[in-house]
Specification:
By secondary structure, the chain is of the alpha/beta class. The protein contains 10 helices and 9 strands. Helix 1 runs parallel beside helix 3 and helix 5 crosses helix 9.
Length: 252
């Protein structure tokens, strides 16, 4: 378990490590969770016994993104802190050189979707849902999530998810290529994900890391350049004049 207590490291055997999202009930994101992800991935990258990683959640919701009840009251310093954590946390996942498989049994919404998009193979259960609700809560995208979305979603899926803020089903996500495997039996979802991780772990590790970097390098470079120019602390904060009211309406 990491320092925040919201990420649990698992050992699935055969060189397969797990990161279990463990901030119940909906794995809401926070700076502690995201910086814990940076820390845990760094440990796994340095650990030669780890050949692949599986992301999972024990809850009905995979991750619902930010807790809007908390977020609506953020001052500028808190807005900067969560933007920086979103950028650093998901960059660490996206740039991780070893195979990563996501086992998604429930909703992955807004920031929570980037655990999925940052993974190499995505296995979903029949009740999974996928969405980018930021426009509905009056917020745009920090640079890292935006570049990951551009790099991993086709233009029409990007348009649909980002401009409507409405989720799609696992079946729709499979048809769009957002997920790779749809496992109808939720009881064996993790087993399917582990099987995919074992297959990837058999590939030559140096070539895998190099090819992954070739694919993702331009997006990573754009993220790093934007952060160097101040993207972690947007002037005036992350929110605009409509954000707090939109968040309150979403909460109901």
């Amino acid at each position: 378990m990491n320092a925040s207590g919201h990420l649990v490291r698992k050992d699935h055997g055969e060189g397969i490590a797990g990161i279990e999202l463990n901030r119940g009930p909906v794995n809401a994101l926070s700076p502690a969770v995201l910086m814990g992800l940076v820390e845990m991935l760094a440990e796994m990258e340095a650990d030669d016994s780890v050949r692949a990683v599986v992301l999972s959640s024990p809850f009905k919701v995979f991750s619902a993104g930010l807790d809007l009840k908390e977020t609506q009251d953020f001052d500028i310093a808190q807005q900067h802190a969560i933007v920086e954590a979103l950028n650093l946390g998901f960059l660490a996942l996206f740039a991780f050189p070893k195979p990563v498989v996501a086992a998604v049994g429930g909703a992955a919404i807004a920031g929570g979707l980037f655990f999925v998009l940052g993974s190499d193979i995505r296995v979903a259960g029949p009740r999974a849902r996928f969405g980018l609700a930021e426009v509905r809560v009056g917020a745009d995208f920090p640079v890292c999530p935006m570049e990951i979305a551009r790099a991993t979603l086709d233009p029409n899926t990007l348009r649909r998810l980002m401009l409507t803020g409405q989720p799609i089903t696992a079946q729709e996500a499979r048809a769009a290529g957002l997920i790779d495997l749809l496992e109808e039996d939720a009881g064996i979802l993790l087993d399917r994900a582990l099987a995919e991780a074992r297959a990837l772990a058999e590939l030559p590790s140096l070539a895998y890391a190099s090819v992954k970097r070739q694919i993702r390098g331009p997006a990573i470079a754009a993220i790093e350049a934007a952060m160097a120019q101040g993207a972690n602390a947007p002037e005036g904060g992350w929110f605009n004049a409509q954000t707090r009211d939109a968040m309150r309406r979403m909460i109901g």
